[in-house]
Amino acid sequence: MVQVLWLVAATLLTFSIGYIGYSRYLSQFVELDDDNETPAHKYEDGQEYVPSKKPVLLGHHYSSIAGGAPIVGPITAGVVWGWVPALLWIAIGNPLMGAVHDFVSLSSSLRHEGRSIGYIIGEYVGERGKNMLLWFAFLTIILVVAVFALVVAIVFNAYPAAATASFVYIALALVFGVYLYQLDLPFIPGTAVFVSAVFGGVWVGINFPVALFPAAEAGTYPAETIVLFGSGLASMVPAAGTLGANTAAWIPVVLVYAAIASVLPVWTLLQPRDFLSSFLLYAGVGGALLAIVVGTLFGTSAEPLTISLEPYYGFMGTASLPLFPLLFVTIACGTISGFHSLVSSGTTAKQLNKESDARAIGYGGMLGEGLLATVALGTVAIAGVTAGGGIGRALPNFASGGSVMLTSFGIPTGVGAPFMALVLVSFLLTSTDTAVRLGRYMAEEIVGTPDATSDAVRTVQSVGINRYSNAAIQCLVAYALVASGSWASLWPLFGGANQLLAALALLTATVWLANWDSDKQLISTGVPMALMTVITICALLYLALYQNLYQQFILGGFAESAGLVARLSVGVQIVIALVLVGLAVSLVGIGYRNIRNVRERPAGAPADD
After folding, report:
1. Is the pLDDT of residue 386 over 60?
2. What is the enclosing helix (H) or strand (E) of 28?
3. Do the beta carbons of residue 332 and residue 498 sit within 8 Å?
4. Residue 351 C-alpha from the chain's centroid
5. Under a CB-based contact definition with an 8 Å cutoff, are residues 372 and 285 in contact?
6. What's the pLDDT band for 125 if we cut at 50, 70, 90?
7. Distance (Å, whole) CA 190 – CA 176
8. Residue 600: is it exposed, middle or buried by C-beta count within 10 angstroms (0-12/13-18/19+)?
9. What DSSP state is assigned to residue 594?
10. 605 — pLDDT class (breaks 50, 70, 90)
């Protein structure tokens, strides 16, 4: 049987070539120069624009971009279509498309005062194009928040120890923020103490797991689990019938946390928490990779680290789903993710200390996410196929397969499984509240300054730019999307919207490069943009028109227990998918015309206003 080590070796080979060669070329191509003042220094305000040390910012950036998608996606794809298609898309697509996308999104934002990709494209194609892209990004953010809140809730239900440990490290992050930025105490000693405390939080979680409601089945929770509410209140929790009371109750808790975290100054929670959790994440990803090497070479793992999945299950796979286009939107963030462009141009660009840091943080950070995707694929390759679908396969396999890897170091599975579950949650929590913060930026740019003549319009504008109401609205809409408990339809819609946003971010970078210098080559960004546009539009149309409209509404595919909320949720998803496709097609047309006009303009001719 094929050893999991070869998956890691293939990925490391292509990633090393990409970082050593291609990222160096791209850095020169966009003319990174440390003599240029970054937006973080130019507009330093202690709130959003805060110059950060490269390790701190890399921790924030990596924690924010590496959500649950690069774990759930590769596992699901490997189970449905086989490990070979999944590995090829990660190992080849990431350095040529995803890392390029993240790097140019960050670089273009640096050249535009740390502004978002919506603002950047508006500079070249006008206000209409800007608003269309901002609306697209905002709708995608809602899907990101909804999906991640749901996955965090499912993880907390499956591993109550991860819930306790998460609260511990959030509390530690708040204290660490005061330690660094208010008391101005030494960085290295403080890092050593607080990072040790984060790992101590894992021990606390294992010994004092917490659940909101009793488990649906006896024996599901560890014996020492602290249950906060009795089963008599379970019927009052929305979606308890489809998701289970405990999972359904965690969703609003996660969303409230995300809303609060998104309005705090970045130094209070975002920067210190992401920096501290990055050590947890590095330990999880790096430890698993090293465990694969050690366990394979020295045979110290509890089970053989070999691949139990088939290389290829056929075009329609094991779930009767077409490999094209669904493989590419299922894996999503492990290869390329539009959400990363919002992080790069939303929070990271506002904290970059010097321009040369963009190479390691932008391009290198995405390669790190690809390694996480490879680890996730390795966990299911070891654990094999279990019952259930989607997240039902992903979570048990990531935790159980990862714990088998860690036995290479003598770590028992009883410790390794909760630890790997916490690694997953750490990625998810940071991505969720960062997404709400980015949604605030999008809404503020869409609404603009409250200067309308009508009192009613000014009121709406004031609500839109208010950080508190803005965050609350996002979380309420996200909750409405997940309240039906419809995981199967929400995940691929999120993937399609996310990948299409990546295509539009690459379009933005291509338009910027074309307007910067009419002689600039546009292949590095233009080819990935064209590929992702075609793939994701096909995927969204398949999901909206065939899987949802035709199978659910026309053929009556809804389960007997599906109520009005579930039908309404699927209807909303159809509308969102079609709106996103329409916005994307219009934006690609506008961008193409701009690039064509720039390239056809005679040398020295003035640009059109």
Report:
1. no
2. helix 23-29
3. yes
4. 19
5. yes
6. confident
7. 8
8. exposed
9. H
10. low
Q: Are 333 and 494 in contact (CB under 8 A)?
A: no
- The H or E element that residue 580 is part of is helix 564-600
Query: Sorting pLDDT into bands at 50, 70 and 90, what band is 178?
Result: very high
The closest alpha carbon to 435, from 546, 333, 300, belongs to: 333
Chain Cα centroid distance, residue 300: 33
Cα-to-chain-centroid distance, residue 383: 24
Q: Which long-range contacts (CB under 8 A, 24 or more apart) does 31-34 make?
A: 32/107, 32/355, 32/356, 32/358, 32/359, 33/355, 34/354, 34/355, 34/356
pLDDT of residue 65: 83
Higher pLDDT, residue 352 or 415: 352
Look up residue 533 and give its two tokens.
């546009």
Q: How many CA atoms lie within 13 A of 458 on its CB side?
A: 6
pLDDT digits (tens, 9 = 90+) for 291-345: 999 999 998 988 888 888 889 999 999 888 899 999 998 887 889 999 899 889 8
The CA distances from residue 574 to 8, 546, 553, in Å, are 38, 10, 11
Q: Is the peptide bond before 325 cis (omega within 30 degrees of 0)?
A: yes
Confidence of residue 608 (pLDDT cuts 50, 70, 90): very low
Residue owning tokens 């999944």: 86
Which two tokens mark 127?
A: 């206000």
Assign 260 to helix, strand or coil. helix
**What's the CA dihedral at 196, 197, 199, 204 to 10 degrees?**
150
Q: Is 186 helix (H, G, I), strand (E, B) or coil?
A: coil
The answer to whether residues 327 and 88 touch, using CB atoms and an 8 Å cutoff, is: no
Does residue 467 have a pLDDT over 90? no
CA distance 369 to 473: 30
Residue 571, pLDDT score: 82
Tokens linked to 603: 């040398």
Q: How far is CA 32 from CA 41, 49, 494, 505, in A?
A: 16, 20, 33, 19
CA distance from start to end of the chain? 62
Whole-number average pLDDT of the chain: 86
Q: 3-state class of 210 per DSSP?
A: strand
> Which of 246, 291, 287 has its CA nearest to residue 423?
287
Cβ atoms of 246 and 157 within 8 Å: the answer is: yes
- pLDDT at position 218 is 60
Listing DSSP states for 437-503 in one string gives: HHHHHHHHHHH-SS--SSHHHHHHHHHHH-HHHHHHHHHHHHHHHHTT--HHHHHHHHHHHHHHHHH
Spatial distance between the Cα atoms of 328 and 323, rounded to a whole number of angstroms: 8
- pLDDT, tens digit, 9 for 90 and up, residues 45-99: 877 888 988 888 887 788 778 766 788 889 888 888 999 999 999 999 999 999 9
What's the CA gap between 478 and 363, in Å, rounded?
30
Radius of gyration, CA atoms only, the chain: 23
Convert the pLDDT of each residue in 14-31 to its tens digit: 999 999 999 999 999 999
